[in-house]
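Discussion board: Methods & Data

I've been asked by a reviewer to show the raw model output for two of the constructs in my manuscript, not just the figures. I'm not sure how much to include, so I'm pasting the format here to get opinions. Each protein appears as its amino acid sequence followed by a line of discrete structure tokens. Is this the kind of thing reviewers expect to see in a supplement, or should I convert it first? Here is construct A:
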Amino acid sequence: MSGSGTEQESGPERSGEPTPSPSSTPAPPRRKFPRGLAGAVAVTVLLVLYVVQIAGRGASMIGTGEPVLIAIGLGVLIIPLLVIGLIAREYWLAATVQRMADTLFAEGNLPVDDLPRSPGGRIDRAAADEAFEPHRAAVEAAPEDWRAWYHLAFAYDASGDRRRAREALRRAAKFFRPARLTRSS
């Protein structure tokens, strides 16, 4: 390169590569290992190590025969098991939400985040509230449609109501019945 300023940048149309047509459908997103999942797995592994350590102490407390230590030992065993159950429930929800997203992607029906934002990146509340109404109406029209609940969840999230967004995702997961592969003989 001579730096004379007369050279043009090479792009797909200059390098001989075909220019993608605007009507072509986008390729499905590549599966990447989600960053959040790595953190969740790390915390879960730490929790399992904690439960193993605590289970031994709880068992030894129960083995003393002292009523107070037996009660404490049972509590030490039950509370971590409850936490593990809640974590398993969250993993199940995450996996189901991903399957729903994959299904909606294949149908070309994923929610689109096109709401106006402030210069700081926050979604305009009035626009989010206005965009919310059609999703609420869709759920009222078809209360057992998982797609309507899925879209409503993202409308709740855009409106800043994370608690209701999670409830709507749980409801969508309840109604979601993925297509099963059937074998023909």
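Construct B, same format:
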Amino acid sequence: IEVQVSPNDSDWATLKTTLEITAGDVNISGTVNARFVRLKVKTAEGGDSVEDLYLNVK
């Protein structure tokens, strides 16, 4: 999982930490100073499919 943050939903920066999930449920917590946060998820099979999961920052 690649975590990206942005102040304006156009200039995205990738956080240095990358998480690799092999099985089970995972909770991600932390603090970022950004207006927008998204997770880029690649499939384990081919690694080509990418889905953006946008998180609501409160």
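Answer (T.O., handling editor elsewhere):
This is acceptable in a supplement if you add a one-line summary per construct. For B, something like: The chain has a mean pLDDT of 64.
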